[in-house]
């Protein structure tokens, strides 16, 4: 059974940092590209970043480029999203996603507020 479990969200002040994790199970993690998405209240789900199977290639949305970094550790079946210089507009539920498997996690809430 394919499972993705996000963690690491929370409340942080503007300018702060968080590191999200996505723990995968039920499939061969290293075989698949992975993405992070986010959904703010009242808005559509938005793509944040992609990472290739071996982690050698990454892309980030313009809105987070230079502040967020996607990475993965295939030995631990885990992906990460390092988020720095957080802004209030980054407030959202963050999801990891394996497109080919059409699998989503349950999401983790990130709130950026003073």
How are the secondary structure elements laid out?
Elements: E1 3-7, E2 10-12, E3 18-25, E4 34-39, E5 46-51, E6 58-60, E7 68-73, E8 78-83, E9 92-98, E10 103-104, E11 108-112
Parallel strand pairs: 2-11
Antiparallel strand pairs: 1-3, 3-8, 4-5, 4-9, 5-6, 7-8, 9-10, 9-11
Task: Give a structural overview.
With 114 residues, this protein is mainly beta. Helix content is 0%, strand content 50%. It contains no helices and eleven strands. Strands 2, 4, 5, 6, 9, 10 and 11 form a seven-stranded mixed beta sheet that branches. It has a four-stranded antiparallel beta sheet with strand order 1-3-8-7, with no helix packed on it. A hairpin with a 6-residue loop joins strand 4 (34-39) and strand 5.
Key traits:
114 residues; globular; 11 strands; mainly beta; 50% strand
Kindly provide the radius of gyration, computed on alpha-carbon positions and rounded to a whole number of angstroms: 13 Å
Helix content: under 10%
Oligomeric state of the chains in view:
single chain
Distinct helical segment count: 0
The average pLDDT value, as a whole number, equals: 97
**Proportion of β residues?**
over 45%
**Whole-Å distance between the termini?**
40 Å
Which structural class is indicated by helix and strand composition? mainly beta
The SSE order reads EEEEEEEEEEE
The main pleated sheet reads as:
7 strands, mixed
The count of DSSP E runs of length 2 or more, i.e. the number of strands, is: 11
Cα shape: globular
Low-confidence stretches: none
């Amino acid at each position: 059974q394919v499972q993705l479990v996000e963690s690491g969200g929370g409340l942080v002040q503007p300018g702060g940092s968080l590191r999200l994790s996505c723990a995968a199970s039920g499939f061969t993690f290293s075989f698949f590209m992975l993405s992070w998405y986010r959904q703010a209240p009242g808005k559509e789900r938005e793509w944040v970043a992609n990472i290739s199977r071996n982690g050698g290639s990454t892309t980030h949305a313009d809105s987070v480029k230079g502040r967020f970094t996607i990475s993965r550790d295939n030995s631990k079946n885990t992906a990460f999203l390092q988020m720095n210089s957080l802004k209030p507009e980054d407030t959202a539920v963050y999801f990891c996603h394996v497109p080919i498997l059409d699998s989503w996690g349950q999401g983790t809430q990130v709130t950026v507020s003073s």
